[in-house]
Amino acid sequence: MSNLLNILKIKQPLSNFDSGALIDVLLVDDREDNLYALEAVLSSPNYNLIKAQSGDQALRYLLDHRPAVILMDVQMPDLDGFETAGIIKRNERTRDIPIIFITAIDKDEHYVHKGYDYGAVDYLYKPYDPHILKSKVAVFAELAQKNRMLLEAERQLRLNEKKDRERQLAQLELKSMRREQTEQKKYLDLIEGIDQGVVWSADTNSLAISFVSKSAERILGYPIEQWSEERSFLLNHIHPDDRRQMNATIQQVVGEKRNLNLDHRMIKADGTEIWLHTGLRLASKGENAGHELRALSVDITKLKEAEELLRENKRRADFLSEASLILSQSLDSLITLSHIRQLIVPQIADNALVHVLNHEGIPHCVVESPDQAPNIDAKSSELVADVSEVVKKGVPVFHSKAIILPLSIRGKTFGALSCLIHESDREFNQDDLAFLEDLTSRVSTSLDNSNLYQEVQAAVRSRDEFFSVASHELKTPLTPLKLQIQILMRTLKNDSLKDLKPERIEQILKASDRQIGKLTSLIDNLMDISRISRGKMKLDLDHFDLMELIRDVLDRFASEIYNAKCEVKFDVPKDTPASLTVFLDQFRVEQIFVNLLTNAIKYGAGKPIHISVAVFQDSVKISFQDSGIGVAPEDKKRIFERFERGVSGLSFSGLGLGLYIVKQIVDAHGGKIELASELGTGSTFTVTLPIEAKNTES
User: At 663, which helix (H) or strand (E)?
Assistant: First the structure.
């Protein structure tokens, strides 16, 4: 391995890029199936995907190649991902190749920091989001393509310079062989053949232009005569920020009599800027005629634009890398959004706001500047309107001074990120929009992870509360049952069974039977939950009298109703028949009535209960109305979930399964259940069932 490292060190930099060639992407993983998975995700006619199954293979490939990006597994035999990255980053020729670590094992924050310490630009966990992975690779692929274009432009420039030098040498040779007139004609012909540059000469003292090639008017837009007629033309039209450098360079050429080059800007006739690479030299005007300043200025505007684009892409890649690190450091969404805002301001925008939907579905600003600019108000009508439109449609709103992007999780928009410019003169462009869309995607993914974490925490709390309630509820019937059995056992032990009156024995047995019934009901509920979770609840449909079933349930719970001091009114309209034959699962429908009745008795003790039936052509509607504690508006959906109850703690018995089971049974029959309630005024549960149901599995 040391020999391979030495070879890697002495290899010369690779610079011969074909701008039209495929972009090389190196995939390093010791598992072939992982390589095939990456190849499937990144498959593109623009990419050349190279697979290496070890760090050693990757290093050998890098001896003669330079990929746009390396996707590397962390856990590999022999050389692991960190060691391989260390060798790559220590080598001057390969240290700038971006590396993205991908792992399914080392997810600890320590390994993430270690990956960045070894020079990685990102650290992804398996399973990864294919779209995010493709976006990350696309950024570096685009960087590589731009770099190729820049190198090609530089090569063309060097080629042009070489041709210019060859022409100049030819001109000098001709001067020594021919008469001055012929030499001058050849020189002028040479100048007129230069399309992408301006040849000019000037006095060394006044800098008055004595000659300029015809290409000057085409490149800069000024008439040829203006160059010579306008006093100090050269310094007048050089960009103000570059005048001092140009003047100093000219003085150095004249004073030291040596050739110098510089890059500078000039203002064209239409007011736009152009970048020129100017070569200056001191030349003789002839015998005893003194010297003049001669120059060739080549248009390098596109080259400068390519360089600026490369710098901007690198800056944005660094920004996204830092943003990814921030997003991975906390699962608190507000802290994460605050840190992202601090990163955006002032690098991308003068201000950044984050709106999220409140429980009423209205965008609410949760992150804003602590010292809000006077002309930027998070509650301004124009901004609120744009934010509302973004949240509603899920598409960005683009202005020259504002970009508002949707924050979405799994296709659902929950908020918006607003980036605003109000202090500087710059304006947003389409590149800014694409960049911020990438950032917003990462922020949304981070917030999704945060929400999932909060849901898991809530589920754990619900589980713990359920275990506590379940323990209490299961012990409640066991305790009196155990006491009754202990009484009988002591009686038998003392041989005093004959002293117990039959009424007392009957009382003990009835009490025991009630506790066994409660325990059986709790166990049945738990078994129903198990069946529902496994999709095993199958309806046993049959014809039966629904009215008779309701009356039977009321008769069986007469003692509970009496003990709760409730008065039950069973209301049947006059035009409703005394019996109603339905084709439903009688056992499950009985569960519905029992759960809703016991629910009304539990939460409306001491107050009247009203049961009503309304029959329609294809359905029947049964309502259970109590005058109990009621349900808060925000809890109306929650109480139909598993292990959820209208009140917390142990104030009321129950596992939080009754209403969940009722809803599952109603849904299985193709019906629906509705709740109308206000705190302190009671609740009305209305169940709508078909007269004849179709058998389905829940």
Answer: helix 658-668
Q: Which residue has the tokens 């009988």?
A: 488
CB 261 within 8 A of CB 279: yes
Residue 366: exposure state from Cβ atoms within 10 A (0-12, 13-18, ≥19): middle
Distance of alpha carbon 237 from alpha carbon 240, whole angstroms: 8
CB 139 within 8 A of CB 309: no
Name the residue with tokens 């007629």: 229
The torsion angles phi and psi of 389, rounded to 5 degrees, stand at -65, -40
Residue 213's beta-bridge partner residues?
none
Q: For strand 581-584 and strand 23-28, is the pairing parallel, antiparallel, or unpaired?
A: unpaired
CA 99 to chain centre: 21
Q: Please tell me whether the overall predicted TM-score, pTM, comes out greater than 0.70 for this model.
A: no
pLDDT category at 352 given cuts 50, 70, 90 is confident
Q: What is the DSSP string of 531-542?
A: HHHTT--B---E
* Residue % of the chain over a pLDDT of 70: 78
Per-position b or e across 291-311, b if 16+ CB within 10 A of its CB: ebbbbbbbbbeebbebbebee
Angstrom distance (rounded) from CA 212 to CA 157: 21
Residue type at 103? Answer: T
Per-residue model confidence (pLDDT) at position 48 = 92
Mean predicted confidence (pLDDT) in 364-386: 63
* Token digits of residue 189: 């012909």
Nearest to 69 by CA among 8, 144, 3: 144
Measured over the CA atoms of residue 64, residue 66, residue 71 and residue 74, the dihedral's sign is: positive
